[in-house]
Write a structure and sequence with these properties.
single chain, 287 residues, alpha/beta, Phenylalanine Hydroxylase, 5-stranded mixed beta sheet, two-stranded parallel sheet, 10% strand, globular, binds phenylalanine, binds fe (iii) ion
């Protein structure tokens, strides 16, 4: 495993956590949370997966505004044994995985400005909490996230982090799930974005392809715009089962000899649910 060479910033603990310092948020900052929350909570019934919608209740705390992590963690702990801890921003990989492996979810400690409601490249507390925490209240997904953290620590020893990161991207961040014959959203990057909550399900541009572990780990992704391909899992149980029962060590070695795939690629062996037109992607110059 790689060692963290970077040191935690001034005032942070050795595991990079900081005090959330909830009292410091201004009324304007709480209002940004409330606006985003209301907008997405209205949009997502019938779009988000049942697990995510069920988990949303865990965020309905005693006060509106940005959740106080202590109160939130108490509720989450009662549901699945997870906690939410504050960090100043992105943390080193081994630190991130170690938190997950111990059922701690790290959340950013700032919120976007009122003029950034629709798009923000770095994850803020709205993305981290509204996007991720509802799924952590689901027992099966909660186990998947912990297993992912353990697998992440292991991947560092194989220099295979970039392959494993694709699994996180195409499931945790941008995953779709099939429920009762319909596509539903569970990826945090989608549920925390109004535009992508519509695009991921309704737009003719992206591909929607049945999840396959090898396939996903070969596929590059873009971080600066809506996805060109979404991968669809049949259920959270199935996602957990296939990742737990696969030893990734030989898989990393095998994938080393294979070509990476571009985000929009469709292969003959894919089970394609929607072949996308890629019209949206073509209209957007790469930045
Ligand atoms: N089974 C994986 C390994 O051998 C670990 C893992 C589990 C990775 C769940 C991701 C998700 O490394
Ligand atoms: Fe995220």
């Amino acid at each position: 495993m790689e060692l963290t060479l970077e040191r935690p910033p001034e005032g942070a603990a050795a595991d990079w956590t900081i005090d959330q310092n909830w009292e410091r948020f201004t009324p304007q900052e709480h209002a940004v949370w409330d606006t985003l929350f209301e907008r997405q909570a209205r949009l997502l019934p019938g779009r988000a997966s049942k697990a995510w919608l069920r988990g949303l209740d865990v965020l309905r705390l005693s006060r509106p505004g940005i959740p106080n992590f202590e109160e939130l963690s108490e509720r989450l702990m009662a549901a699945t044994g997870w906690r939410v801890v504050a960090v100043p921003g992105l943390v080193p990989d081994d630190i991130f995985f170690d938190h997950l492996a111990n059922r701690r979810f790290v959340a950013g400690n700032f919120i976007r400005r009122a003029d950034q409601l629709d798009y923000l490249q770095e994850p803020d507390v709205f993305h981290d909490v509204f996007g991720h925490v509802p799924m952590l209240a689901d027992p099966v997904f909660a186990d998947y996230m912990q297993a992912y953290g353990q697998g992440g620590l292991r991947s560092l020893g194989f220099g295979a982090l970039h392959k494993l990161a694709r699994l996180y991207w195409y499931t945790v961040e941008f995953g779709l799930v099939e429920e009762e014959g319909a596509l539903r959203i569970y990826g945090s990057g989608i549920v925390s974005s109004r535009g992508e909550s519509l695009f991921a399900l309704d737009d003719p541009s992206p591909n929607r392809i049945a999840f396959d572990l090898r396939r996903v780990m070969r596929t590059r992704y873009r971080i600066d715009d809506y996805q060109q391909t979404y991968f669809v899992i049949p259920s959270f149980e199935e996602l957990l089962r296939c990742t737990l029962e696969t030893d990734f060590a030989p898989l990393y070695a095998e994938l080393e000899g294979m070509e990476d795939l571009d985000p929009e690629t469709v292969l003959a062996e894919d089970r394609v649910l929607t072949q996308g037109s890629q019209a949206y992607a073509r209209s957007r110059p790469r930045g």
